[in-house]
Design brief:
- The protein is α+β, with helices and mostly antiparallel strands and 58 residues long.
- The protein contains 3 helices and 3 strands; from the N terminus they run E-H-H-E-E-H.
- It has one domain.
- InterPro entries: DNA-bd_dom_put_sf, HTH_17, WH-like_DNA-bd_sf.
- Pfam families: HTH_17.
- This is Helix-turn-helix domain-containing protein.
Length: 58
């Protein structure tokens, strides 16, 4: 199990975008796939990388 999990704050720092933008993207179905782990939102690093690759192809 080598796929690290990112918090929404980690992802915000990685993408250099505001946390509120990530919350908006979650509400509208944009952005990388995330999931809830209890009360927390987490993102698999592989899903984030795949989403970045997809965005670059557009």
């Amino acid at each position: 199990m080598n796929d690290s999990l990112l918090s929404i704050e980690d992802l915000s720092a990685y993408l250099k975008i505001p946390v509120n933008t990530l919350y908006q993207w979650r509400k509208t179905g944009k952005g990388p796939a995330g999931f809830r782990a209890g009360k927390y939102v987490r993102y698999r690093s592989s899903d984030v990388d795949a989403w970045i690759t997809e965005q670059a192809a557009c």
